[in-house]
Amino acid sequence: MDQLGEERRKAQFDVDDMKIVWAGSRHNFEVSDRMAKLVASDPGFRKDTRTMLARKELFKNTLRKAAYAWKRIVELRLSEEEASKLRFYVDETAFTDLHWGMFVPAIKGQGTEEQQQKWLPLAYKMKIIGCYAQTELGHGSNVQGLETTATFDHQTDEFVMHSPTLTSSKWWPGGLGKASTHAVVYARLITDDQDQGIHGFIVQLRSLEDHLPLPGITIGDIGMKFGNGGYNTMDNGVLRLDHVRIPRSHMLMRVLQVTREGKCIQSDVPRQLVYGTMVYVRQAIVADASCALSRAVCIATRYSAVRRQFGSQNGGPETQVIDYKTQQNRLFPLLASAYAFRFVGEWLNWLYTDVTQRLQANDFSTLPEAHACTAGLKSLTTTATADGIEECRKLCGGHGYLCSSGLPELFAVYVPACTYEGDNTVLLLQVARFLIKTVSQLGSEKKPVGTTSYMGRVEHLMQCRSDTQRAEDWLKPSAILEAFEARATRMSVACAQKLSKFSNPEEGFAELSADLVEAAVAHCQLIVVTKFLEKLQQEIPGKGVKQQLEALCNIYALFLLHKYQGDFLATGCITSKQASLANDQLRSLYSQVRPNAIALVDAFNHTDHFLGSILGCYDGNVYPKLYEAAWKDPLNDSVVPDGYHEYIRPLLKQELRTARL
Amino acid sequence: MDQLGEERRKAQFDVDDMKIVWAGSRHNFEVSDRMAKLVASDPGFRKDTRTMLARKELFKNTLRKAAYAWKRIVELRLSEEEASKLRFYVDETAFTDLHWGMFVPAIKGQGTEEQQQKWLPLAYKMKIIGCYAQTELGHGSNVQGLETTATFDHQTDEFVMHSPTLTSSKWWPGGLGKASTHAVVYARLITDDQDQGIHGFIVQLRSLEDHLPLPGITIGDIGMKFGNGGYNTMDNGVLRLDHVRIPRSHMLMRVLQVTREGKCIQSDVPRQLVYGTMVYVRQAIVADASCALSRAVCIATRYSAVRRQFGSQNGGPETQVIDYKTQQNRLFPLLASAYAFRFVGEWLNWLYTDVTQRLQANDFSTLPEAHACTAGLKSLTTTATADGIEECRKLCGGHGYLCSSGLPELFAVYVPACTYEGDNTVLLLQVARFLIKTVSQLGSEKKPVGTTSYMGRVEHLMQCRSDTQRAEDWLKPSAILEAFEARATRMSVACAQKLSKFSNPEEGFAELSADLVEAAVAHCQLIVVTKFLEKLQQEIPGKGVKQQLEALCNIYALFLLHKYQGDFLATGCITSKQASLANDQLRSLYSQVRPNAIALVDAFNHTDHFLGSILGCYDGNVYPKLYEAAWKDPLNDSVVPDGYHEYIRPLLKQELRTARL
Ligand SMILES: Cc1cc2nc3c(=O)[nH]c(=O)nc-3n(C[C@H](O)[C@H](O)[C@H](O)COP(=O)(O)OP(=O)(O)OC[C@H]3O[C@@H](n4cnc5c(N)ncnc54)[C@H](O)[C@@H]3O)c2cc1C
Ligand SMILES: Cc1cc2nc3c(=O)[nH]c(=O)nc-3n(C[C@H](O)[C@H](O)[C@H](O)COP(=O)(O)OP(=O)(O)OC[C@H]3O[C@@H](n4cnc5c(N)ncnc54)[C@H](O)[C@@H]3O)c2cc1C
Ligand SMILES: [Ca+2]
User: Fold this and answer.
1) Which residues touch B213 (CB under 8 Å, ≥6 apart)?
2) What is the C-alpha to C-alpha distance for residues B620 and B352, in angstroms, rounded to an integer?
3) Considering the domain boundaries, does residue A130 fall inside one?
4) Are strands A182-191 and A130-133 parallel, antiparallel or unpaired?
5) Do B140 and A398 touch (CB under 8 A)?
6) Per the database record, which ranges form the Acyl-CoA oxidase C-terminal domain (chains A, B) (predicted)?
């Protein structure tokens, strides 16, 4: 029975048009589609044995794939856009991620013109491999607390890079452990015994001839991480520097220059430049979140349509588990979230352009807001995605626990996104700080901008009450928006009021930080809802496409409204009757989405190779494939397992006393 | 600096007394302590290289440990209690878990006296190794849908065991894949073409001489599962039966007998017997939950006291992250949950005795309630524990992502508890069904019993309002209890009312199932809170011990009240002002627990071996140990990695064109 074929026939919209919307443009779709298929059809990129390999083999195979990908990129003369898509579809975390994603951007962002001209051509050709060495054993979140020192030596015109303590060992940088030849090392600049703060330095780690660490340098891999294949394809590393000397010109000096005399000179490049990079990195993380979540949702949705359990009547087929309302209530909000994060990611992309242009025009007015907003969205989307992947795994019952479902590895490789580039709680506290500041300025000249501009209507939002009276009223964008804006405003204002009772504001902030985080979450959820609604204000071509997106947007919003109804009720934005109506509406939205669910995940255009999941395969032919795959486990190399003679037989024969164990 | 020593000095209670409370009795404590130390001090049980092994080595090593554990058990003439504790502290999922935990109990529960006399002595000596083969590729939750057949053959007085379809392949049973010689296979009994439902059959799988599968039997391992070591020490297996013949006497016939003539005779043993086993298995799962959660909490708590980040003043030490209120707000409710689950597990243990006695007295009146309550508590505690372990991992920042933190593997090995022995959502639906039935009988003769007896006060609970006026009022057990009872009652009653509007009750149940699950959760949370409060009514000796437990109980309850304030507000049990007071009280409880946090996790009495975590080690000497451990990864066997010459060098030297990749 072609279960999924039948599902596809039920769809009420044009899936090809939706693919374009998901991809962002026809161009994006075409490049992605081409690169995805290129990777999928090339046996050199197979990944189905990844979870069976021990660490060394696994890592060696990653080195092979990285080299092979680069070879193909060069052979096919791929554009930068195509190359980065190709690497993306290879779908194996590797040192190249850091080289392209952190090392190159650090030089671009923090290097002078001269430095860029020296280093970038080497990096672009991969004549050197670079990584980004910031975190230490003792300091991650608190970058200002880093202990590695870079001391200027007047005599030799060099910096002496040194790890003075055990906790100052660099620890975590990806690509550092085994692959990189160079690193941007963040260290405390010291000139004439003066602490000049943390700056980046280009340090050569290994000989370009034999790959051995240079004198004074100790490097290694920090060991196994979560998951089987997972992130273990990456050589996150440890680095100790013992008075390693580098030329003065290796300090990245775009913002601060150290002269031959050891004087520090602030350049006229604005310090705020870092914001640009931050917005860039974080918009990429949000885009990744929507992608990772869409993979998990695609797997769980397809399998939920294939899996049948209970409800057979008169010997007929059982019920598809996707028809259970509990399954829908767990799955469809995640489907909606994948779309919501996609669109907010698209908007962040725009924001990055906007920020860049403003920086060029020396307009810094929107930067703090852009910074807070990207911090918050990074936190919100990565947390929701990590949790969502695991929920999708559970939605697949027992079979979701097999690596062949693809979900365990997807989870293991995804979760650190909640920690790196800013611990999610630390980020929300930054958002909260910004919100409190915004509230404190509400009466003043300074009007709230960007994603906080709704707070300009604080008076209305503090006292408005939702006027929804029937379930359908909750479909109105204005009803949703007002409820979310009112809730976010009231939570921020309530925190500000409580804070004002403390004589020491920092103490107050610390004491109330759990509440502040909740206010920050409310604000971030509002942003996602707003951007989804704004997207729907655009023209969206394609039969039925817009209707589907409207349903998903409403599911996203009303699911949040239900899950966080405590916020909405406690702040008096809605009544419990209205909350209940929203919930009724949510249920009927599920029914509306149900016949379109398979097509909505098809629209992600994930190849079977990229999904890496038997449960999620396009043809839905789950059971024969699961059965086949099982036999490939090395444990099935022999019928009688290794160890039988030594350990099982003596047990059964009651001969353990003399056995060597 | 002996950070944790200082923390221990701050504690305001006697940790040795708390250890007894945690263990349940002095006897339990002593046995556990002795067995834990026995395992920890024996190099034969080392587990620190587990995550580095490939599957075959990993599995072979598990076989060794299982045999070695048995050898020690025999040598030391350990009692059953001691033996099971020893296996527990070996802390490696293995075929023996199923042998002792499912195979033996199945024979005890479903075998006749005669069958027990035949099989149990063999099993007790491990002359045979058994597993529990119920789930199939196509059927897990819906046991009644199993497809494997056991057809009675009149001529030979045998059953013919057969897998008629691909989806009827047994799939998942632990110990089946490689180790077991026997299985209890659940199959559809067919006599004279009549379907007689699902029953258990003892099937020999492998020869006792050479361990080869017997004729007609195909067996293998189903492949890699979540995590690295994780559950991959277990040989979850696939089994196909091709007309395999077994004697009639191998059907487990305690409840239903098949005679030589192929007649089915119901025995006078009550069918409800299964409930006894179910309560037993589930109370064990709840006890496991508290143990797994306590491990994660112990690791995160100790590391949070060691880890310092930000907040250094005048060059002094930074703030311990455990002092951040956001950290406390994530961590302390989990600490409280570990204790809460421990005590509800203790109570379930009592319930099992009670149920057993009633069964013997042919009193079935409390069984449905006991069944619903254990189903609900299994679901609630395993979900909270799985989520809690991952939260603890995140609480450790980047270092939590290393396998050496112990947390990734703890998570990976724990999560299937949400799926096996009843999918958690399916279980909550069963609870909901029972609640709705209870509500429908409220006016009648049938009074609600056991954990639903609060519903007897439905009239009061439907209209009462909390009278808390100050934050401290929320410390009163009566205030907490009434709020939780009122909320649970109102949610069940509201569902029942909505259901009554459907002409077809089953349709209504399906449509409203998401709401029903929420009502079930509310009921289960009430049970946990109630049992914790009841525990505190007992005499609890030891300096300061009871005070600490009271604080934890209040944290557990008020944290839930805050997290689910939407329920409490929507049902009008409390006002938003009261919700806010509860939250204030919660914050001050955190401050109260803070100085005791380390001692409260010490009270779990986990050895460093059992914890298997560098971040959680007793002496808090985290950084040097992390650093040491890293170098043991096989990837660090050589400074220049395997694959450098083939893949890195050609890349750097721009010689990929001619490289073999
Ligand atoms: C897979 C992976 C890859 C990585 N790659 C790189 C890389 O390439 N280069 C690199 O330099 N680094 C890398 N890192 C390191 C990463 O950036 C850090 O782990 C991250 O910044 C978190 O910092 P931390 O580990 O110090 O967490 P911590 O700050 O120690 O967090 C521990 C706990 O303390 C809490 N906390 C900390 N400060 C506060 C506060 N002020 N208020 C309230 N709570 C607080 C946190 O919320 C958390 O719960 C990587 C990490 C991982 C896991
Ligand atoms: C590690 C592990 C060890 C195991 N060990 C054993 C063993 O030793 N022996 C053995 O026999 N089995 C074993 N199992 C199998 C286990 O018992 C089943 O996986 C479990 O019963 C869940 O069933 P399922 O996989 O069919 O899930 P499914 O029922 O297929 O669940 C899939 C989804 O459908 C939903 N769903 C299903 N029915 C309904 C419904 N009526 N209403 C609403 N939603 C529904 C579920 O909530 C879930 O989201 C093991 C499984 C694992 C993961
Ligand atoms: Ca492995």
Assistant:
1) A639, B205, B206, B207, B219
2) 40
3) yes
4) parallel
5) yes
6) 477-653
Evaluate: CB of B329 within 6 angstroms of ligand 1: no
- Which tokens belong to B5? 């020593």
Q: Is position A146 within any domain? A: yes
What is residue B272's predicted lDDT score, i.e. its pLDDT?
79
Marked catalytic residue, from A7, A136, A421, A482: A421
Sequence-separated (6 or more) residues with CB below 8 Å from residue A301: A322, A331, A335, A597, A598, A600, A601
Structural domain harbouring B165: 128-269
A643: left (phi over 0), alpha (psi -120 to 50) or beta: left
CA distances (Å), origin A135, targets A144, A148, A187, B419, B468: 11, 10, 10, 38, 48
When CB atoms are compared, the residue of A211, A329, A429 closest to B326 is A429
Q: Is residue A398 within 8 angstroms of chain B, CB to CB? A: yes
The token pair at A106 is 């650090």
Please say which residue of A203, A235, A269 terminates a domain. A269
Indicate if B421 belongs to the active site. Answer: yes
| C-alpha dist (Å) from residue B30 to A567, B33, B39, B339, B509 | 48, 5, 14, 19, 49
Q: Measuring CA to CA, which residue among A232, A147, A273 is closest to residue A198?
A: A147
The predicted-structure confidence for B364-416, as pLDDT tens digits, reads as follows 888 999 999 999 999 999 999 999 999 999 999 999 999 999 999 999 999 99
Mind listing the pLDDT tens digit for each residue in B610-643?
Answer: 999 999 999 999 999 999 999 999 999 999 999 9
As residues whose CB is below 5 A from the ion ligand 3, the structure lists: A 228; B 228
- Token pair, residue A57, equals 């083999």
Q: Which of A269, A289, A318 is the last residue of a domain?
A: A269
Q: Which two tokens stand for residue B641?
A: 């990695």
DSSP A236-272: -EEEEESSEEEEGGGB--SSEEE-TT--EEE-SS-TT
Which of A424, A587, A654 is closest, CB to CB, to B125? A654
Q: Which of B406, B377, B417, B403 is nearest to B296 (CA)?
A: B406
B368: amino acid identity, one letter: P
CATH of the domain at B192: 2.40.110.10
The Cα-based distances of B196 to A311, A606, B136, B250 in angstroms read 19, 46, 19, 16
Q: Are A622 and A396 in contact (CB under 8 A)?
A: no
Q: Whose CA is nearest to atom 35 of ligand 1?
A: B321
* Minimal Cβ distance to A394: which of B223, B418, B515: B418
Chain B residues inside the 8 Å CB shell of A567: 566
Check residue A640 and report its DSSP letter.
S
Classified as helix, coil or strand, B600 is: helix
Task: Say which of B158, B421, B485, B550 is annotated catalytic.
Answer: B421
Is the pLDDT confidence value at A274 over 80? no
ipTM of the complex: 0.98
Q: What is the 3-state secondary structure (H, E, C) of B456-482?
A: HHHHHHHHCCCCCCCHHHHHCHHHHHH
> Using an 8 Å Cβ cutoff, are A32 and A208 in contact?
no
- Report how many domains make up chain B: 1
Segment A493-497 mean pLDDT: 98
Return the residue of A nearest to B628 by Cα.
A222
pLDDT digits (tens, 9 = 90+) for B516-537: 999 999 999 999 999 999 999 9
Q: Chain A closest CA to B221's CA: distance in Å?
A: 6
Q: Across the interface, do B227 and A228 touch by the CB < 8 Å criterion?
A: yes
Q: Which two tokens stand for residue B659?
A: 């490289």
Under 8 Å CB-to-CB from B124, ≥6 apart: which residues?
B104
Structure-token pair, residue A119? 């280093």
The residue whose two tokens read 């030297």 is B653
Q: Does B218 reside within a domain?
A: yes
Residue A179 lies in a domain: yes
